[in-house]
Amino acid sequence: MRLAVFFSVLASSGLQIHALSPEYLACQLQKAASSSPLTGCPEGTLFVSPTDTRANFTKVQDAVASLPETGAATILIGNGEYFEMLNVARSAPLTLLGQLDPATASDLAGNASQRNLVHIWNNLYVQSGVTDEETATLTIAPSSGQNFGNTNFRAYNIDFENRAANYSISQALVTSITYANASFYGCVFASWQDTWYTGSGAYTYAFDSIIYGQTDYLFGYGTAWFQNVTLANRACGGGITAWQGTSGTKNGAYIADSKIIRSPDANSTTVTDKKCYLGK
Ligand SMILES: *[C@@H]1O[C@H](CO)[C@@H](O)[C@H](O)[C@H]1NC(C)=O
Ligand SMILES: *[C@@H]1O[C@H](CO)[C@@H](O)[C@H](O)[C@H]1NC(C)=O
Ligand SMILES: *[C@@H]1O[C@H](CO)[C@@H](O)[C@H](O)[C@H]1NC(C)=O
Ligand SMILES: *[C@@H]1O[C@H](CO)[C@@H](O)[C@H](O)[C@H]1NC(C)=O
Ligand SMILES: *[C@@H]1O[C@H](CO)[C@@H](O)[C@H](O)[C@H]1NC(C)=O
Ligand SMILES: *[C@@H]1O[C@H](CO)[C@@H](O)[C@H](O)[C@H]1NC(C)=O
């Protein structure tokens, strides 16, 4: 009932929040305790929650690891904090859905940082013996011996963060995506240095999402399209982008209809005006 009312209000307002998926929203909205959290979800969807006793798993990675090698899969992630690293190696399609609160999901003035209830985070950073890629909170790459990883990874309304420090401690990745196709809708990616990595052979797309960083925070060798994103400078250093294209290919970082802002959580003493280079 509550859902039906919500949808009719959205429809009658004529306005759309593009970060919300018409296909998955019914699944993502939190339900009354008497209804299954999986109401409105695609058949076979797994439910992850750190607190709900009806969940199939308490960790997202355990749900990912349980999936068969073939067949499209969907995982609904309940609201909460997930201190873990995700590693997606399966090649069959995978959709991760972040649960949303019906009261805030519909706020037209809202943004992903306010809206998202699911926070997946880790806190590794590059120090002796640790490579860049090993620090990523979310890794999407082929399993060993395979040429290509996930063919259609999608995430909706999820915060992925690297909380190694509240300053640029060294490289501390949020995403590491190589030889895979991945897209993100209404997500948040938060770190300071090297937040986003689209590596070799990867095609990535991010829509209506917020990316926080300071130094080289969009970097890679692959093909990345950022559409209607907010790039939030927590400070300045290196460049916002650090990309190595390959001549004769279309590899690169494409940024369209997006904005660069001073991050709301930048230290008040940090100067960002006219100091942040677009690329290095
Ligand atoms: C996941 O949990 C739901 C109950 O919330 C149950 O109906 C479903 O069978 C479980 N799925 C698996 C694969 O165990
Ligand atoms: C990955 O995406 C690219 C660009 O859209 C496409 O050409 C390619 O076929 C996709 N690869 C797979 C395995 O789906
Ligand atoms: C970063 O700041 C937040 C908010 O003040 C605090 O809770 C957190 O512990 C800090 N993180 C580190 C790694 O110091
Ligand atoms: C994307 O951003 C452009 C420019 O700000 C805006 O005109 C457009 O409506 C946005 N598109 C979506 C789907 O939000
Ligand atoms: C998200 O919205 C809140 C409330 O309007 C605002 O304070 C904050 O600056 C916004 N964040 C970004 C990254 O735009
Ligand atoms: C802000 O920066 C100053 C100067 O670098 C530092 O002393 C202070 O601890 C920082 N504050 C926070 C909240 O990180």
Automatic annotation (TrEMBL):
The lineage of its organism: Eukaryota, Fungi, Dikarya, Basidiomycota, Agaricomycotina. Belongs to the pectinesterase family. Keywords: Aspartyl esterase, Hydrolase, Lyase, Signal. Residues 1-19 form the signal peptide. One of its GO terms (molecular function) is pectinesterase activity. It comes from Rhizopogon vinicolor AM-OR11-026. GO terms for biological process: cell wall modification; pectin catabolic process. InterPro entries: Pectin_lyas_fold, Pectin_lyase_fold/virulence, Pectinesterase_cat. Pfam families: Pectinesterase. It comes from the Eukaryota. Its EC number is 3.1.1.11. The keyword Lyase applies. It is an enzyme of class 3 (hydrolase). Residues 51-280 form the Pectinesterase catalytic domain. The keyword RNA-binding does not apply. Pathway: Glycan metabolism; pectin degradation; 2-dehydro-3-deoxy-D-gluconate from pectin: step 1/5. This is pectinesterase.
